[in-house]
Design goal:
Elements: H1 2-16, E1 54-60, E2 75-77, E3 82-88, E4 96-102, E5 108-115, E6 121-126, E7 133-141, E8 144-154
Parallel strand pairs: 2-8
Antiparallel strand pairs: 1-3, 3-6, 4-5, 4-7, 7-8
Length: 157
């Protein structure tokens, strides 16, 4: 009896399969490429590392008695010394901070790195004189960018 019921159930299930079903119509898929930056220039993204380890950073020419930047500025005269100071919240053993200076075409013009040895303040002075133009400096905590400052050097007047 169980065999008969099983055979009838299979026959009903097989019979209920639709033979009249049609395959779905093929869709036409159009792929459009949207450029990331229509002007063709590079995009710079400043991503602050987690945890937040930067207290503050200043770029300027006037230094305080302790050797840190006293006043922030983004415009300088040709020939003026330029320095970047970063104040950190954390300075684990083995930490090295650094600064990389770039010209207007993003070409690296100078790089300085120093071990912190527990210190939480570092000042990086650009030793070379800059011609008039736009520049940028990045400050690093280990391998993480913590400061990104753009500045301009004007001609002597």
């Amino acid at each position: 009896m169980r065999k008969v019921i099983a055979i009838l159930a299979c026959a009903v299930a097989f019979g209920s399969c639709g033979k009249n079903e049609t395959a779905p119509a093929k869709r036409k898929v159009v792929t459009t490429v949207i450029p990331e930056n229509e002007s063709g220039q590079k995009k710079r993204a400043f991503v602050r590392p987690v945890p937040d380890i930067l207290d503050k950073s200043l770029l300027g020419t006037k230094l305080a008695a302790d050797g840190t930047v006293a006043e922030e500025s983004s415009a300088f005269k040709a020939g003026q010394p330029i320095a970047l100071t970063i104040w950190l919240k954390q300075s684990p053993p083995g930490l090295a901070t650094s600064a990389t200076w770039f010209d207007g075409s993003e070409k690296k013009i100078a790089h300085e790195q120093r071990p912190m040895n527990g210190a939480k303040v570092a000042t990086f002075a650009l030793k070379q004189k800059l011609a008039p133009g736009r520049y940028r400096v990045e400050g690093y905590w280990g391998g993480n960018v913590v400061a990104d400052k753009s500045f301009e050097v004007a001609g002597k007047k």
